[in-house]
Amino acid sequence: MTPTEQLFSRRTALKSISSGFGYLAFAALADQEALAEGAAKTRSPLAPKDPHFEPRAKRVIFLSMRGAPSHVDTFDYKPQLQKDDGKQARNTRLRGGRLMGSPWEFSQHGKSGLWVSELMPEIAAHADELCLLSGMHTDIPNHPQAQVQMHTGTSRFVRPSLGAWTLYGLGTENANLPGFIALNPASGTAQHFGSAFLPAIHQAARFGSSSRRSARRVRGGTKEEVPNIKNLKLDTELQRLQLDYVQNLNRAKLKRDGDQPEVEGVIESFELAFRMQDEIPELMDVSGESRKTLDLYGIDGSASDGFGKQCLLARRFIEAGVRFVELSHGNWDHHRNITNDLPARCNEIDKPIAGLLADLKQRDMLKDTLVIWAGEFGRTPHGQGGDGRDHNNKGYTTWMAGGGVKGGFKYGATDPHGYEAVEGRMHIHDWHATILHALGLNHEKLTYRHAGRDFRLTDVHGIVAKEIFA
Amino acid sequence: MNLRAISFFLVFSASLGLAQDERELTTEELKFFESKIRPIFAEYCYKCHSAEEKIKGGLQLDNRAGLRHGGDSGVVLVPGKPAESLLVTAITWADEDYEMPPKQKLPASAIANIKKWIEMGAPDPRGSEKVVLENSIDIEEGRKFWSFQKPRRPALPEVKDEQWVKSEIDFFVMSRLETAGLTPAQDASPELLLRRLYFDLIGLPPTVPELEAYGAALRIDSDAAYRAKVDELLARPQFGERWGRHWLDVARYAESSGKEVNMTFPHAWRYRDYVIDSFNQDKPYNRFVQEQIAGDLLKIKSDEEWQENLIATGFLAIGTKGLNERNPRQFAIDLADEQIDSTTQAILGLTVSCARCHDHKFDPIPTIDYYALSGIFQSTRTYFGTVNVIVNRRGTKLLELPVPDATPMKILTTRELEAIKSRLANSEDEMAELLANRRSRQQGQNNNNQQQLNRLRTTVAQLRARLNGHDANGVAKTLAMGVQDYANPVDPTVLVRGEIDKPAQTVSRGFLQVLHHPEVPMSLPRESSGRLELARWLTSEENPLTARVMVNRIWQKLFGKGIVTSSNNFGTTGQAPTHPGLLDHLAVHFMKEGWSTKGMIRELVNSRSYRMSSTYSKAAYTKDPDNALHWRSTPRRLDAEALRDAMLVASGDLDLERPRGSMVVQVGDVGIGPRVNAAVFNRPVKYRSVYLPIVRDGLPESLALFDPADPNLVTGDRESTNVPGQALYMMNNPFVVGQGVVMARRLIEEAETSGERLTLAFQLTYGRLPSSSEIEQAKSFLWNFISVAQRKGRGREEAGILALSSFCQGLLCSAEFRYLN
To answer: What does the pLDDT look like over A122-147, one tens digit per residue?
Structure first.
């Protein structure tokens, strides 16, 4: 390795001068007063910020299940539904209106004795970490609108996503990486990860996509998932020479101009980008993980391989200091063929998620990492066409783990058949308020002024479910 | 299609009726409805036609408004006339397309009762509690706010340093500076000023010959040379491309519907070109606004003029749309809302849509004003196209323009035409068969069948759309997005909290009371929507906002921020103007000078205030860190379009020809999704960035990374972020790397010695000559780079070219290239 390579190729060498690179350069050139002014203006909008109060969780992994998994077949045990299997459903006139007991067995798990169906045996083993939210409800039983609402609070307007608000509220820990990362987003879901009126820097960096080709690439573990992450003509040393020249020009401009926070910003963003080239592909390349770890996540060429890789990447990003990581898993819309398809989907995520929980725990990170599992709504207790369930926005279950929530705890309930939330009712606004609360953010105070008024993730709604916190 | 038009006519006559019969029901009527009619609806109809369950065919029978409004097929109930009511046709199974309920006919007694009920006038007590929404806002009090008062030209303020001022504008700027104890920055150097002027006026950097010619002219008379340059740039076709793009930001221009079902708008580009051409013609701004709001209703002298006016109304048609909305009434009201929101933010700088659900919390805009305005748009039919595939429930026709394209966008050969027709016929037959089969089966629904049906429906819709887009000879029709009045305008119903099933009183169509001026009549004609009157009201010289909002936008683009920094919000929660007198001076001047955009721009850039340098001053910074009083020129980043165009200019690759149409025309009428996505629109092209495809949630990378206007929103100010994704793009993207290579080749071709080549490089990128130390640094970079590259096994020539390319790319990456001082 040449001296230049030693100097510049390793991120360890660069981390030491990470966030203050341009700042230091500035210091060499400007007098102290100008420096203070410059520093005040150029403080990165993503620098870590204090929450409103002592947080329970410092970061979030959001496992988004697109298509709406059936709650009555997974995490919402309804013995009455089993009993009334085949009876005419009373509170509905939907087609096929006969109640359908879950074809799967439920049993109790852990010290807490939480009921989980046999479809999620590995997650069930972590029952004592799970906080089931069984009184969920949302406004619209349509996938696109409900997904947008789950992410932004409303489907009617373009609003910042939960991750963007989190980043806006807390900043991020690692200046070498984006603070909000979406893995494997479905196409056409930009709004789920957008910053809307928040400054653009709060939107998610999206890695991988759901199209079949790139999904395979995520699984294959190549290093080029991020657009423009690699220069095809210059190696690191030559690129560093080029960048040094550019930065010389930039610093000369800074010196000439006196006060130019924007130029300072250019200098810093080039340094972060240069470091990301090194760090991102490395973070996304899991080939160095032990067989044991890969097995833990179900990365073994089986059906769980793809989502296992995502879960492992999420852990690596979180560990590296990323504030909010969202994973996405699709095809949960079981209007028919539920007896085949639901077990298949569960099988794809069960081991990876269990592995993620176990891994976070063994790294002592579960205590301050909030893991959220959610579909956009639930499904009906009555069957559809004999082997399916229809959309149900009136009652469903999501869960959280870690991040200071009570483990082995079930909050809220649906009616005896699982149709409508009747206890501990939690609307999406309440859910958002509760997530922000875990992060030490008061959802009523986390505001951004736009078009003449202060906007919130929860609009004028939102009640924190304080009961779920330990 | 004719049938559709007729049904829309019926919809509106029915809603008018709804407003009239609001009398109390008799006990007998009430009893008949409750005992005979409601049970029929509940038992047989709600399953598919209620808010609780499904709203098939857009028809809702669980409330009076829904029933009276009808569904996708139009009005279903004509009170007093069972024979004309589609509802009766359906329940008697008299038309095979409308057999309801589909699986089993109603009992004869139920059918008789419904007929009788309709004869009685269909008395329906549901949801008829008379709700009247009161206005809680004191309009007179609200009118006292500065922006609701008509601008008046103030006297020029006194200044001490009369030597400094060059134009009336300078009096206002200087006076504020003097009061605050600030001194203006010195004049910018000629080359910095020229670069600023070029980008501000045409969005491109000066070429080297232009730089040199300007340098020569300066030596004769610098002020005259500058003014001549201003006039020259204003006259270039690139001016419209630059300033048209600014308006397209405000007009939330896009070539797809956005939201969940993102369907392309392959004809939106006509509006884009219209906007660009309008700026190039220096169309008076009041006229420009009138054409966009009511072009279809303006008097015309020729078909060409009519054509232009129709295309202009595309402004109202290009907004985001929730095409999967099941309820047509909800869709109509959301569409009107989007039109109100865009129109009022863009033209008035007000967020009137806030008043949809409640009286505006901050501005004197009551909900009833909102609905008065909404009535104008609800009486307007919007033509936005899109194909009605399964997920898209709300596609419409397009406007067929009076003057066909000289060369059609596409011509289908006879063979292609025949192929489409025969595929269509086959698919239609197959679909009919499938439907017949399904009907014959009494119970259950086969999913495969359903899927096949869905596929066929999509195919048929797509083929029909292709066919409809061409005439009998296969020549593509000349189509545009836009609006037309409905035959019968509707007086809008106020909706409690904006919910369609919570109607309150009916109000007359009209404008915002707070902006009302006695000289401009508020009453609208019975026979048309009132859009023409709205357009006139918006552009009346009595309107206190329109001119102010526009001059502020122009100022903002030239000075970095507006006099009112919240350029889309002139309401009470917006920012107060930093120079109120100047704003009014400009607004009045703008109107007096015939609303000329070019004239206003000329006025501003000829001021001394515009020509300041951006030099930092510690003393001034301490007093005014935000440069609100304009003690210097605010440094600005090149926006997405200018950055890409400037790279192409530096490399010599830019193609200044306007491309025909848009890439979106080539992909046709489709949904943006896995197959048609941003990747498709990243195809390398060399024309100006304003012509790149603007697909919602799928902008090309070269724009998307650099804070373009989000076409989902009315954008007054663009963000200016510095994120690593941009740096990665500049460092590694093949386009940027490639521009470095092309530029290096150009240096080699156009200059002899290394010194000349480096000099040319600085001129191409920075618009100035390099200093001798810059030349030395560049040389030492090249030597160093070459030696390292050679050590790594590259040949001498290869290393040399790589070094020069990397140097060129380096200049493109650098801050001086990407910022304007």
So the answer is: 999 999 999 999 999 999 888 878 99
- Per the model's pLDDT, the better-predicted residue between A451 and A88 turns out to be A88
A139 contacts chain B (CB < 8 A): no
Domain ranges of chain A: 44-222+285-468
Q: Length of chain B, please?
A: 821
The tokens of B263 are what?
A: 């369907």
Enumerate the β-bridge partners of residue A133. Answer: A398, A411
- Arithmetic mean of pLDDT, A351-372: 97
The reply to whether omega before B237 is within 30° of 0 (cis) is no
d(CA A295, nearest CA chain B) in Å: 32
When pLDDT is cut at 50, 70 and 90, the band that residue A44 belongs to is: low
- Backbone angles phi and psi of A326, in degrees to 5: -115, 130
As a whole number of angstroms, the distance between CA A78 and CA A71 comes to: 10
CA angle at residue B455 from B449 to B456, to 5 degrees? 90
Nearest residue on chain A to B809, judged by CA atoms?
A: A242
CA–CA distance, B538 with B535 (Å, rounded to integer)? 5
Average pLDDT rounded to a whole number, residues B557-580: 92
- Asked if the model's pLDDT at residue B130 lies above 70, the reply is no
% residues pLDDT > 70 (chain A): 83
Vertex B86 angle, CA B82 and B88, to 5°: 50
- From the list A37, A210, A227, the residue facing B701 with the nearest CB is A227
Chain A residue with the nearest C-alpha to that of B804: A242
DSSP E strand boundaries for B51-114: none
Helix and strand numbers, DSSP H then E, in chain A: 15, 17
Q: Check if A363 contacts B (Cβ < 8 Å).
A: no
Q: Name the residue facing B722 among A196, A254, A269 (closest C-beta).
A: A269
In contact, A14 and A270? CB cutoff 8 Å: no
In the DSSP assignment, the letter for residue B297 is G
What average pLDDT does the segment A435-461 reach? 91
* Residue among B673, B811, B815 whose CB faces A266 most closely: B815
Using CA atoms, how far residue A9 sits from A195, A221, A239, B335, in Å, is 32, 21, 10, 54
Pairing of strands A114-117, A130-137: unpaired
- Whether domain A44-222+285-468 has CATH 3.40.720: the reply is yes
The full set of domain ranges for chain B reads 2-119, 284-403+482-538, 414-477, 732-820
Mean pLDDT of B547-573: 94
Average pLDDT over residues B275-303: 98
Cβ(B87)–Cβ(B119) under 8 Å?
no
Tokens of B188: 């910018």
Residue B24 three-state SS: coil
B373-429 pLDDT, tens digit per residue, is 999 999 999 999 998 887 888 999 999 999 999 999 888 999 999 999 999 999 999
Tell me the mean pLDDT in the region A284-296: 91
- B-chain CB neighbours of A140 within 8 Å are none
The phi, psi pair for A84, rounded to 5°, reads -95, 15
Q: Is A453 in contact with B362 (Cβ distance < 8 A)? A: yes
Cα B205 to Cα B6: distance, rounded to the nearest angstrom: 55
Cα separation, B15 vs B17, whole angstroms = 5
Say if residue A279's pLDDT is above 90. Answer: no
Residue burial A435-446, b: 16+ Cβ < 10 Å; e: rest = bbbbbbbbbeeb
Classify B608 as helix, strand or coil: coil
Q: Which of residues 8-47 of B touch A (CB under 8 A)?
A: 46-47
* pLDDT exceeds 70 at position A451: no
- Is A258 within 8 Å of B573 when comparing Cβ atoms? no
Name residue B9's amino acid: F
Mind telling me how many Å the CA of B571 is from chain A's nearest CA?
A: 8
Between A448 and B59, the more confident residue is A448
Q: Please state the pTM of the whole predicted model.
A: 0.77
